[in-house]
C-alpha cells in the first residue's frame, strides 16, 4: 500500500499533539530512457512514480525547523540563521534546501514536521531528489513562496551539488517537481523544457529492484562526467548534446578508446530518447521496447555502468513473452532495471521474473508495477 495523506497526518498528530497545517509529497522517479545524458545537456524521458516522500508540517513563530523521521525513528532540528553542514545524514538534505532557498533570496519561516517515505533508498529511484523537492515544497507552503517546479528543481539540485556534495544532473529533481500523471516527461536538459508524453495503450512500466546497492557510484559517476566534458572539448562544443552521429564518426578515430565509447553512448542515447518519444506518440510499444534494449547494451558495453545483477535482471525480464524491452535505469552499478510490458500480463510477469532472477542470482528482488503520478504537491489541511 503506498503511503497516503492520512498516514502522515496521523504521524504528525501523534508526534506534536495537534493537526498539521500542510501535507506535501514529492515522488521518486524511474527513467524510461535517456541515461547519463542530463549532464551532457541532452534528453531524458523519466516518469514520477507512485512512491514518494511526504512531510506533514505546522508553522512555528520562530526560525527553527524541527523534524521527526518516522522511517529512521529520529528527531533532528536546525535554525535557519545558523545553517552549518555537519554531514549528519538525512537532515542535511533539508538544511541544504533551506540554504539553497535562502541563498536565492527567499525569506523562510520555521516549522515542525514529520517526514515519511516509501521510495527505497539507494535503489536508483531518486529518494534524495524526492526529499529535496518535498523540503522545497514544504518551505514554499509554510513561507508563502509561489511554487514553480523548474526554479525549485534547480534549487534542489544546487542543494545536492553544493551542500550534500553529489554532482548529479537535473533529471531527478525536475521530474520530482514537474511529473505528470499517466505520462512520461521528455526533458530537454539544456532548455529545461518539459513535454508530457502518453504511454502506448495497454502497456505498463515495471520497476525491477535487483536488491543490490550501488557501490563506488560517486567516483565512477564523476569520472564519466569528466570524460564527457573532455570529449565535448575535443569536438569544440559546449556539451556532447551538440555532436551528432555523423560528426562523431568523422573524428572518432582521433579519440582514445574509452573516451570514444563514452561519447558514443551519450550521442546515440540522445538519439534513442527522441526516437522513443516518437514511438510513444505512434503507440508503438515494440519500437519503444527495442530502443530500451539498445540503451541497455550501450550502457553495459560503451558506458560500462551496468552490473552482473542488472544484466541478469534485464535477461530475466526479456525472457518473458509480455516484455517489450528492459534496461538498467538510473546511475547504474546496482539498483533497479525498468521494463515495458503488456499491462494485462503484469501480475504474472512480476511473479515469473522475480522467480527467474532469484534462481539465477540467489537474490530476492522487489518488483513494482508503477503508475505515473504528478510531481510535488501541497495540500492545506
Ligand atoms: C543519477 C543522477 C542523474 C542522472 C542519472 C543518470 O540519477 O542523479 O542526474 O545523471 O544518474 O542518467
Cα distance, first to last residue? 22 Å
The run of helices and strands is HEEEEEHEHHHEEEHHHHHEEHEE
Q: State the helicity in percent bands.
A: 40-55%
Named CATH architecture of the largest domain: 2-Layer Sandwich
CATH-derived topology of the largest domain: Ribosomal Protein S5, domain 2
Structural class determined from secondary elements: alpha+beta
Low-confidence stretches: none
What count of structural domains?
2
Question: Secondary-structure blueprint of this entry?
Answer:
Layout: H1 5-16, E1 22-31, E2 43-44, E3 46-59, E4 64-69, E5 74-79, H2 91-103, E6 111-117, H3 127-143, H4 149-164, H5 171-178, E7 183-188, E8 194-198, E9 203-209, H6 217-235, H7 245-251, H8 257-281, H9 285-301, H10 308-318, E10 323-328, E11 336-342, H11 346-361, E12 366-370, E13 377-380
Parallel strand pairs: 4-6
Antiparallel strand pairs: 1-3, 1-13, 2-7, 3-6, 4-5, 7-8, 9-11, 9-12, 10-11
Helix pairs in contact: 2-3, 2-4, 3-4, 3-5, 4-5, 6-8, 8-9, 10-11
Alpha-D-galactopyranose (GLA) binds at residues 35-36, 38-39, 168-169, 171-172, 330-331.
